[in-house]
Write a structure and sequence with these properties.
The chain is mostly beta strands. Helices cover about 0% and strands about 35% of the residues. The strands form two sheets. The chain has a seven-stranded mixed beta sheet with strand order 1-2-6-5-7-8-11, with no helix packed on it. A six-stranded antiparallel beta sheet has the order 4-3-13-12-9-10, with no helix packed on it. A hairpin with a 2-residue loop joins strand 9 and strand 10.
Length: about 160
Amino acid sequence: MTPDPPNPFDSEQPTRIRPSMTPATPNSVDNEQSARIRPSSSDANQKPPSVIPGFLAFVSGQYSGTILPLKPDLTRIGRDGRINDHVIDDPTVSDVHLSIRFRNGVFILTDMDSENGTKVNGQPVDQVQLAANDEILIGRTRFVLMQVPIPTDDPG
């Protein structure tokens, strides 16, 4: 029986996510086929938020089947592990490729002047409001936005 994959919220240490969802060993070597989830330096000593507004689900390529949580405010994605919340080790992804801001129940994707650009549902974008199931392509990495319904206090 194979053990469950690690939960990125169970540890404050960076977690390496591989296409097979195999946990990395502390001495494993970075390569172009690994992605890392790293807390930003300001979040390193804080507990994760209780409400996750959405996830990015990788649908093709080397990361297929991987799911990354979005932060309840701003999530940065790119190749540079010092700046980004989710690191994509893909040479066609820029150091700071895009950001996704969640505000008032809406996701706004902004391309951060990336070299190869960002496409949403096949169309090049600089900034766009996302909807559930929108397909995002950066470099050779393709993922889909999965939005989590936010509960309201209104029982009706």
